[in-house]
Amino acid sequence: ISGMMQAALIPVLSQYTAPEKREELRRITGALLVLVLIVIGSAVLLLELFAPLAVQVMTAFGGGASARGADTVALTVQIVRIILPTVLLLAISAVIMSTLYSLHRFTRPALSLAARNAAIIFAALTLGRTALGVRSLAVGVVLGGLCLVLIQAPGLRDALPRPNLHFRHPAIKRIYTLYLPITVGLISNTIALIVDRNLAWGAGVNALGAMRYATALNQMILGLVATATSIASLPTLSRHFTSGDEEGYQRTLSNGLKMVTIMVVPATLGMAAIAWPAVRLLFEHGATGNAGARAIMIALLAYLPGTFFAAFDQVLIFAFYARHNTRTPVMVGVLAVGVYFITALSLVHPLEMTGLVLANSAQFTFHAIVMWLLLRRALGQVGDATVGRTLRRALAAGGVMALGVLALAQVLRLLFASSGSPVTLQLVEVIVPIGFGALLYGGLLRALGVEEVRAIQRGVLARLGRA
Question: Helix (H, G, I), strand (E, B), or coil: what is residue 420?
Fold first, then answer.
């Protein structure tokens, strides 16, 4: 569903956002919603009926059956059945969100995503200790999906979809064409994810949980750094391509790459520098002891190189999507899955969990490098000369920042060692280095003459002024 929004919906719907085309936009989105109800609704009903078979297929790859047991499989079937209606809600939300993004309306999508996460937390806190147990998280996901729809829908008051059955509209045909290759990539990625999780069951007692918690931190970085920038630039890139404005396209692409550079360098290097205090603060609670926390830290550090490249990869993928080319990213994605399998199967036995994580990083790194080479071949250049200059200066500033943050974190750790590290002191060990690192990095970028940091500061101050 996410791939449909980024690869097909936003690039096509962006062509119908002009005031004179607003009525046609309503008809297109209305037909899409009806199509979603028919196709996704039918798939959800089938999976509700055949949930045990679906779970059996998912657990058939990679071993680990003895670690799971019959009770875990039965619980999985129950959770699948609870969570499946969310798929339909997410599909409806994707159409609404794509329309809002195409209209350059970003506030309601952002609020709805925050509300979705809040709903999961609320359900866990209020229902987690009842008979529902872990099922409460699935209930929270369903409530979160409902929040996505209810919060975003009012944003289309002046462009409300008109339900209809015009599935042969040229725009919808174009969406079919763009989305078809994406399904191949999604299937290959899903297979890789299932194998990865199955292999993790046999890669150590803490492997599965450590990989999941470390993934959450990496996804936070990608969400803050890459996804927001990429989705915000996608409608503009699509319009430049449609109008034949290659200069505007390259300018927007350059700005996107530079913004990602400025943010992903301190995010990944800074996270590496405070990995241990951050993991202790966030995860070393309850059933997660010191050994589990160390496993999370190791997984996090092994994921971070892939996270760095994945941030740029998202911009490059969207650059192809904006040009109505979904085949190239998918072909590269399938090859990248092959890189994952080769690396994972080679490293899982000697390195166990670390081997699986490094395989994931290798997959993202390979994909980003190949995408950059192919985009440069197609366009002659990827952005302008300022992109490379910004990357070099950001890496220099980020390296100094990371060393400073690491030194400060070690000093605080020694100072608080005799206090037993209560949560308040653990919070200080994380927040103080982050604040110091942000000031140091920003000052170094300004000293090095990186103009984009001034634009970010002006934008933040303008937002604060409005507030």
Answer: coil
